[in-house]
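Practice problem 4.
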């Protein structure tokens, strides 16, 4: 990483603090120098810019495709998980597009994206061989999907069994022979995304043999052979991907920055040529070269690697699948410039990138805007940015700030609610002068300073309209700008900005669901003491690890989605450098259970895939609305804890994501602030909409019954009474007899309101009476707001 030599910081007055706001991120920046050069050079510059734009699009689209594949796998449930080739069929279209003339276009784009990130071209011979092998893999997988579909429809048909066995064997052989073409010596890094995505397909294929082989008529010994191969290939592919990723990081770190390449960095034109401030753009460009590879290869490679352990159907045999959470934090492009005290890649890394830490959720941002000096050449100056953060499960928040010396009074403080920021854009000049924030659907939240035109979020999943990540952290470095002559020249402001992002699979609570196996990363703890630390993960775990040496203790706050329902097996995924003893406690208002387990040494050195093993602990009955899991290393180790897993003994389907969750709700009428409640405490009480007094008679529990695919709506004051209706269609709260008339479905209107529908397809409707509204059933009239209600979570 080459740095410009330092020069006198006070040679001339700054001419670089002009600013502009391009409409699009790749729009051509002002370039007055072009007026003095030839038409031929202008054309060369345009061609260069077009090339850079295409390459940047290749990277963005490749990341989006990889995120789409990941999202599909994370969301996979029955019947996809219960069908041969089910997951393969879901992701096949991301890799081999149904439109366009080149079926291998996505794979070529993967290669071109990494070539761009590390500035290394794949030779034509290596590229052609890889593309040829991918065409063979495509054909083989298509034949396998056809055979699998035949067997899925006719599972007892002898010919269908024989066909799927034969085609599985052929497809497996094809991929086995193809894989070496995706890790050619000397080109391992630019081929890494191709290798990882091909390996993902291979592991899913082997998973099918282990999961369905017996039903296909395979001998037990053959199925066991494929299980051994699945384990072997998972370890081999995982370690190869993490090691090659590390090798690529070194390549990216050694790339030489050129901040005057305006084809690649149009937003730096003309600032990076300024005789005083120009040299301070080199370090952020240099850091971005390194971070672009780190971020994009996490998204394209390491994220998919992190889900591979769940492909083992003997360990992860829950038919409803696994709820996986990625806890790693990635950082988008840094914009702006630093100053003499921070103008190095290491300084940027130290300030902008957080060291391994427990997961935090960003609750609020505050931007301090200071008053400008009369001769100051910037239009706006930020002197401080404050993150308000919260550990998962904690009831308290804390702040982390970045600031410059207070040389001027504060003009205003911009406060931004930050719990749902899915994207942002910057207003750029010599330094960023404003930030526009958007939610997960890209709807505007607010703008601080000038509205921005340079997008700086993480790409969406391909095929999704929602952002894939949410903002988790904002950091900034000091720079200086002109404000007249000495002693007010120069003056400090925050001029170099970085942003951290968390994947949306990482939730803000540790909620245990009743159907899927719930994985909770250990770094989602909120409390610790003793010999505790968070250490960098090996790249294959989807995030960092909790390290406990003797006496080290950590606590994770968890919440059942539906307290009192079911029992759970619990196990811990860990690695250890020596034998030891781990104590596991369940704590509510006191310790309810405490058992100590022996754990085994799993590694003597680096943490590889095989370093991680599972420790089964006692079953948990989740009767409480929330409780803590305490993990204490009593002796030995240290132990590195990756995840704690809750596996329902008898899985019960969760309610639809769009429906109400566990807890009390008020049913608020859309045309008033009135609430639905019972009108008396008798066992045959009419329901009505009355003034909302927030009483328990106006609160309801929505209890989902998967066998009915519907809810019972139980009153919170009289828990024996549920929504029902008489022969005239008038709603009453009646004793629960689990009759068909006592089950209801929830339909989202789309404006924040819902419809309540009975099993006959009739809708709850408010009928005006003197002083109140009674509730009746009627057909749907979509224009009537008298059929619309809001469900408000209540205590």
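Answer key:
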């Amino acid at each position: 990483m080459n740095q410009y030599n330092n020069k006198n910081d006070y040679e001339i007055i700054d001419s670089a603090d002009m600013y502009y706001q391009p409409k699009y991120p790749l729009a051509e920046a002002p370039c007055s120098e072009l007026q003095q050069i030839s038409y031929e050079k202008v054309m060369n510059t345009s061609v260069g810019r077009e090339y850079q734009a295409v390459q940047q699009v290749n990277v963005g689209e490749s990341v989006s495709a990889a995120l789409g594949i990941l999202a599909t796998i994370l969301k996979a449930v029955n019947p996809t998980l219960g069908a041969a080739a089910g997951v393969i069929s879901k992701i096949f279209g991301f890799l081999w597009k149904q439109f366009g003339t080149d079926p291998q276009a996505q794979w070529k784009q993967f290669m071109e994206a990494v070539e761009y990130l590390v500035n290394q071209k794949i030779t034509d011979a290596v590229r052609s061989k890889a593309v040829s092998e991918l065409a063979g893999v495509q054909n083989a997988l298509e034949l396998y999907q056809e055979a699998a579909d035949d067997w899925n429809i006719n599972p007892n048909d002898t010919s269908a069994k024989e066909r799927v066995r034969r085609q599985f064997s052929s497809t497996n052989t094809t991929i086995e022979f193809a894989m070496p073409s995706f890790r050619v010596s000397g080109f391992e890094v630019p081929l890494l995304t191709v290798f990882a995505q091909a390996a993902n397909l291979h592991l899913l294929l082997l998973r099918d043999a282990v999961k369905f082989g017996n039903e296909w008529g395979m001998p037990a010994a053959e199925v066991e052979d494929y299980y051994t191969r699945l384990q072997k290939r998972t370890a081999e592919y995982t370690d190869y991907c993490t090691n090659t990723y590390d090798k690529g990081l070194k390549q990216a770190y050694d790339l030489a920055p050129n901040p005057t390449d305006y084809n690649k960095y149009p937003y730096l034109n003309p600032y990076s040529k300024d005789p005083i401030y120009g040299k301070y753009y080199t370090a952020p460009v240099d850091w971005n070269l390194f971070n672009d590879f780190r971020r994009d290869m996490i998204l394209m490679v390491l994220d998919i690697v992190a889900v591979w352990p769940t492909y083992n159907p003997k360990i992860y045999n829950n038919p409803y699948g696994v709820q996986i959470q990625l806890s790693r934090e990635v950082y988008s492009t840094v914009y702006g410039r630093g100053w003499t005290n921070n103008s190095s890649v290491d300084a940027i890394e130290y300030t902008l990138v957080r060291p391994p830490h427990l997961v935090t959720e960003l609750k609020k941002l505050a931007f301090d805007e200071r008053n400008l000096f009369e001769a100051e050449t910037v239009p706006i100056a930020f002197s401080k940015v404050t993150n308000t953060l919260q550990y998962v499960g904690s009831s308290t928040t804390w702040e982390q700030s970045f600031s410059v010396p207070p040389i001027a009074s504060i003009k205003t403080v911009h406060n931004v609610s930050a719990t749902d920021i899915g994207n942002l854009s910057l207003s750029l000049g010599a330094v960023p002068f404003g930030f526009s924030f958007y939610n997960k659907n890209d709807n505007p939240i607010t703008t601080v300073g000038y509205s921005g035109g340079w997008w700086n979020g993480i790409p969406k999943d391909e095929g999704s309209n929602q952002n894939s990540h949410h903002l988790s952290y904002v950091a900034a470095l000091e720079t200086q700008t002109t404000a007249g002559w000495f002693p007010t020249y120069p003056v400090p402001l925050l001029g170099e900005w970085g942003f951290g992002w968390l994947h949306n699979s990482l939730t803000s609570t540790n909620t245990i669901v009743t159907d899927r196996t719930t994985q909770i990363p250990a770094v989602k703890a909120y409390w610790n003491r003793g010999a505790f630390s968070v250490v960098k993960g090996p790249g294959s775990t989807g995030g960092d690890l909790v390290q406990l040496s003797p006496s080290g203790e950590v606590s994770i706050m968890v919440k059942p989605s539906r307290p009192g329902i079911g029992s759970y097996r619990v196990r811990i995924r860990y690695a250890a450098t020596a034998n030891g003893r781990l104590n596991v406690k369940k704590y509510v208002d006191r310790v309810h259970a405490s058992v100590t387990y022996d754990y085994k040494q799993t590694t003597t050195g680096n943490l590889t895939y095989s370093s991680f093993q599972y420790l089964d602990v006692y079953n948990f009955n989740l009767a409480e609305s929330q409780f803590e899991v305490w993990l204490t290393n009593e002796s030995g180790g240290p132990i590195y804890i990756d995840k704690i897993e809750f596996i329902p003994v008898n899985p019960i389907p969760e309610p639809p994501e769009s429906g109400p969750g566990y807890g009390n709700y008020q049913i608020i009428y859309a045309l008033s602030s009135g609430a639905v409640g019972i009108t008396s405490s008798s066992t045959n009480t009419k329901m009505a909409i009355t003034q909302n007094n927030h009483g328990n008679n106006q609160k309801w529990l929505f209890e989902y019954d998967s066998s009915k695919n519907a809810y019972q709506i139980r009153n919170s004051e009289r828990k024996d009474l549920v929504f029902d209706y008489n022969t005239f269609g008038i709603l009453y709260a009646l004793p629960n007899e689990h009759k068909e008339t006592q089950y209801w479905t929830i339909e989202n209107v789309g404006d924040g309101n819902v419809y309540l529908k009975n099993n006959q397809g009739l809708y709850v409707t408010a009928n005006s009476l003197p002083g109140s509204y009674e509730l009746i059933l009627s057909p749907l009239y979509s224009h009537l707001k008298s059929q619309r209600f809001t469900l408000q979570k209540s205590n």
